[in-house]
């Protein structure tokens, strides 16, 4: 959804879009001064700002989406940072500078993702556990996102970041979330393609073609 206090901003570098509040963009302050006038002023996600296209997430095998740079300079998906326990953000308000410091290094590759399409990737990164008691289902956050298995915390409820396996999720909700995710992916790809085409055109002009 979108309302005035929580506008969707689109990155002018890669086309990714995000709710202001989900990305830690606030109404007041320096970051927000770019963002609240998103229609007129360009806005760039952290990866594009850093000149990095499609970083590799440190904690999952999937590519694309919104990234945040960790305190050590690595990259993780924003969503991975929010849903993996023990990943915290130095600046909670702005949701910046996630740290993997509290994550045990043994977490990497410890559990196999039950959702990974390519089983080669199932043991890369860090999996979360189905939040239903005693359920032993594990999955990557981004795999769960695509499969419609992540909770959708509302704005007052930032604590409620968890995932449920297919068995423990409501079928209708899965369907709805998957549809939303696909719609989001589609417009992200379309915007990305448009930006790329514009860049291509600029290049042709520059070389006089
Ligand atoms: Zn971007
Ligand atoms: Zn990730
Ligand atoms: Zn996976
Ligand atoms: Zn479960």
How is this fold's topology laid out?
Blueprint: E1 8-10, E2 17-19, H1 20-23, H2 30-35, H3 46-49, E3 67-69, E4 75-77, H4 78-83, E5 88-91, E6 96-99, E7 128-129, E8 138-139, H5 141-146, H6 171-206
Antiparallel strand pairs: 1-2, 3-4, 5-6, 7-8
This protein binds zinc ion (4 copies).
Residues 57, 59-60, 62, 76-77, 80, 142 line the site of one zinc ion.
Q: How many β strands by DSSP? A: 8
Low-confidence stretches: 28-38
Strand count, sense and barrel status of the largest sheet are: 2 strands, antiparallel
Shape: globular
Which percent band covers the strand fraction? 5-15%
Write a concise synopsis of the structure shown.
With 209 residues, the chain is α+β, with helices and mostly antiparallel strands.
Textual characterization of the structure:
- 30% of the residues lie in helices and 11% in strands.
- With 209 residues, the chain is an alpha+beta fold.
- The protein has a two-stranded antiparallel sheet. A two-stranded antiparallel sheet has the order 3-4.
- Residues 28-38 have low confidence and may be disordered.
- One zinc ion is lined by residues 11, 13-14, 16, 44-45, 47-48.
């Amino acid at each position: 959804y979108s309302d005035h206090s929580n506008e969707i901003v689109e990155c002018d570098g890669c086309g990714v879009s995000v709710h202001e509040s989900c990305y830690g963009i606030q109404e007041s302050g320096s970051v927000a001064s770019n963002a609240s006038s998103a229609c007129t002023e360009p806005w760039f996600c952290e990866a594009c700002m850093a000149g990095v296209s499609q970083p590799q997430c440190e904690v999952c095998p999937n590519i694309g989406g919104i990234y945040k740079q960790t305190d050590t300079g690595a990259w993780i998906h924003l969503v991975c940072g929010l849903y993996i326990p023990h990943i915290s953000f130095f600046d909670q308000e702005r949701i910046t500078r996630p740290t993997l410091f509290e994550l045990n290094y043994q977490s990497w590759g410890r559990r196999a993702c039950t959702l990974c399409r390519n089983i080669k990737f199932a043991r890369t990164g860090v999996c979360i556990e189905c939040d239903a008691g005693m359920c032993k289902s594990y999955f990557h956050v981004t795999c769960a996102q695509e499969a419609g298995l992540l909770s959708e915390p509302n704005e007052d409820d930032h604590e409620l970041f968890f995932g449920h396996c297919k068995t423990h999720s409501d079928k209708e909700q899965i369907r709805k979330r998957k549809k939303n995710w696909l719609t989001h992916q589609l417009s992200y790809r379309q915007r990305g393609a448009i930006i790329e085409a514009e860049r291509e055109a600029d290049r042709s002009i520059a070389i006089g073609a």
